[in-house]
Amino acid sequence: MLQGHQSWIFANRPMIKATGVSGGPFEANGNLANEFDLLHEDLWMGEETYEKAHRVLLEEAMHAALSKVDCQKEEVQFMMAGDLINQLTPSNLAARTMQIPFMGLYGACSTSMESLALASFIVNYQGAKRILSGASSHNAAVEKQFRYPTEYGGQKPPTAQWTVTGAGVALVCENDGTKGVPVTTSATIGKVVDMGITDPFNMGGAMAPAAADTIIAHFRDRQIEPSYYDLIVTGDLGRIGQKATYELLINSGLKINSNQFKDCGLLIYKDNQPVQSGGSGAGCSATVLYGHLLNQMKKGIYSKILVVATGALLSPLTFQQDESIPCIAHAVAIETEGGME
Q1: The whole model's pTM is what?
Q2: How far is Cα 62 from Cα 22, in angstroms, rounded to an integer?
Q3: Distance (Å, rounded) from C-alpha 49 to C-alpha 105?
Q4: Which domain holds residue 233?
């Protein structure tokens, strides 16, 4: 049901029954390498283009999720996924392979939680029994489209972030009462916020106000305190964006402990990897959530988390037309209940 102005409550608590996470060579050397199901040694992944390699990431993640619960793709009612490439090309090609009824989504780097929120809503109201929900990105493909090809060797400022090569997918299912399986309990759909930033190398700074706006809306709509959650994690704000968002939240009156507030873009890579301000991309929050964070929940380290995926809705067209960067953030609350099996 709707609660407040922009939040849904999932009374039937859809389950994240299984997940699949794939990544590239940079992620294989990262901080969370052991949390991936599949990792590649190079960016090509046996394909002739980076965009086709991007497709492989998503297909592998979906197959990994299904294989964990011995579910056939024919048993899945819908596939909901998106990426950052023109007209969702990698996701469209993966949907062609999977042959599951498909809804392509674009929320830039917020797509992981946009898809999880919508999948949860549909399952909660018996619109489907099983939905594959996910997002993906590929460093070389994304950089080529939004900034400069990596082969160009252009220098990046300290505000820049490193696009994650990876895909994260969840199999969202009806709640069957299994103990210890993460469930989605609510979602807050964000508004587009644009504070006039035009620098495509400062995504964190551009997205921070949208992240803060959605988080504030979530607690206003839910009428709960931040202490309700063990962890509040943003998608890919990086060092600059996370700091700015935290200051905005504190100034709004929310009492959030700094140790409780983290960012996927700061979790995925090691400190000695040259990622400037941190990780980014639609695959950033998807891989960190569906790999590392849900594994932490299954171990009992966290029982309630709020995941706020952030997206910068720029494009080559908006950049060419001297537009500023509109941004958005979507939040999904995930909990475990009933103890562990």
Answers
A1: 0.95
A2: 9
A3: 23
A4: 183-335
